[in-house]
Amino acid sequence: MIVLTEEQEMIRKMVREFAEEEVAPISEKLWEHQDFPYEFWRKAGELGLIGLPYDEKYGGSGGDWLSFAIVLEELARVDCAVANSIMANSSAASLISNFGSEQQKEQYLRPILTAEKIGAIGLTEANAGSDASSIKTQAVLDGDEWVINGSKIFISNSDNDITGPVVIAAVTGKKENGKNEISNFIVPQGTPGFTYGRKLNKIGWRASSTGELFFEQCRIPKENLLGERGAGMRQTLSTIGTGRILIASLGLGIIQGSLDRSIAYLHERTAFGKPLSDYQALQFKIADMATHAHAARLMIYQAASLRDAGQPFEQESSMAKLFTTEKAMEAAHQAIQIHGGYGIMSEYAVSRAFGDAKVLEIVEGTSEIQRMIISRYLLK
User: Fold this and answer.
1) How far apart are CA 88 and CA 91, in angstroms?
2) Which residues pair with 270 in a beta bridge?
3) The domain 6-118: what is its CATH number?
4) What are the record keywords, sorted (predicted)?
5) Which one, out of 144, 175, 278, 292, has a CA that is 20 to 30 A from the CA of 306?
6) What's the average model confidence in pLDDT over 80-107?
7) What is the number of alpha carbons within 13 Å of residue 71 lying toward its C-beta?
């Protein structure tokens, strides 16, 4: 059994109040206009939420990953897209924190932990999603500079006014076995040859900007190589397990939010002369949501606790990601059923959560990829 500390319970209470007061009133507008919540980002930074699990030396809060999972859970309970902006920022932050030089951490990590900037990670390409080793973007060393050519797609936090460094993966040669040698690079905003493409129109995560990146003879100093040359995939894979815990936390937020809204609606509405809460078919739906929320919370908190303890957690994180995101989709679906015609109106949060839930089954490894990972652990 996972027992939260008094500090973790205080974090939950504080973030829940923050989400209700600062995010809930603007959630529909953010969804409708696909706006990025800059004021929320600034306030979240002041509260220390964005850099919570990172070193205080670089502007973080020195907290633990379980507390960070709770932060994302509570934010996603109100608006998953807003929570994702913090999650996606952490992907870039983890790479720089784990593999960056002191100079890189001071220059690029600190601003995205203190909310001055927002980080992004560029891995996915049009023909390289789950098979990230097949990327085509190339980086060639020319004297004291790397010259990058290629493109990326489906990049969260791209093309915001405060987008800071983008950490991208590029092919830097061939290994002895003929496979691509992949390295990671830090590309600052405004670098000549680095441009943004269209802003992608999604069914979910609409308040979290997602776009294309283009690199045409983009030159960066050789010092912007992140860690060792050729270590790009190893670096990314070492952080992706943590990312799956965080995506699962977003899914848990959707399950809990769907449950809370459904219970409130069942008490408010009547049909055929009786409150909706009297109908057993609807009672069963919220019973399932509550059960799935409880199970998901145990799985996520266990995986995060293992991560904090420095113990292996990859299998548990894949299990948590698989279970929670699929149950989030189910909960969002059932919440819409409970709300009836109102449930398909975008002014209702249950409608917006439905698109958000679908996204979660895709990112950080699809459900099919998670089943492959889990089965490998079981069979080896």
Assistant:
1) 5
2) 275
3) 1.10.540.10
4) FAD, Flavoprotein, Oxidoreductase
5) 292
6) 96
7) 25
Side chain identity, residue 270: T
Q: Are strands 210-221 and 145-156 parallel, antiparallel or unpaired?
A: antiparallel
Tens digits of residue pLDDT in 239-262: 999 999 999 999 999 999 999 999
Q: Find out whether 156 and 209 touch, Cβ atoms under 8 Å.
A: yes
Q: Any idea where the domains of the chain sit in the sequence?
A: 6-118, 119-231, 234-379
What positions carry a catalytic annotation? 364
CA torsion 98→4→88→226, rounded to 10°? 0
Q: Say if strands 225-226 and 210-221 run parallel, antiparallel, or are unpaired.
A: unpaired
With a CB cutoff of 8 Å and minimum separation 6, the contacts of 229 are 172, 181, 183
**Contact status, residue 123 vs residue 236, Cβ threshold 8 Å:** yes
Which residues of 29-81 form beta strands (DSSP E)?
A: none
The pairing of beta strand 118-122 with beta strand 163-174:
parallel
174-205 per-position pLDDT tens digit: 988 888 999 999 999 999 999 999 888 889 99
- Return the closest-CA partner of residue 255 out of 230, 219, 288: 288
Homologous superfamily, domain 234-379: Butyryl-CoA Dehydrogenase, subunit A, domain 3 (1.20.140.10)
Output the six-digit token pair for 118.
């927002």
pLDDT at 81: 95
For residue 271, the 8-state DSSP code is E
**245: which 2 tokens?**
């815990």
pLDDT in tens, 33-47: 988 999 999 999 999
Q: What backbone torsions phi and psi does residue 193 show, to the nearest 5 degrees?
A: 90, -10
- List, in sequence order, every residue forming a beta bridge with 138; answer none if it has no partner: 149, 171
**Exposure string for 174-209, b = 16+ CB within 10 A, e = fewer:** eeeeeebbbbbbbbbbebeebebeeeeebebbbbbb
Q: Which one of 3.30.70.1450, 3.90.180.10, 3.10.129.10, 2.40.110.10 gives the CATH number of domain 119-231? A: 2.40.110.10
Q: What number is the average pLDDT over the span 342-360?
A: 94
Phi, psi at residue 197, to the nearest 5°?
-95, -150
Residue 205, both tokens: 């995560």
Identify the pLDDT of residue 129: 78
User: Are 186 and 108 in contact, with CB atoms under 8 Å apart?
Assistant: yes
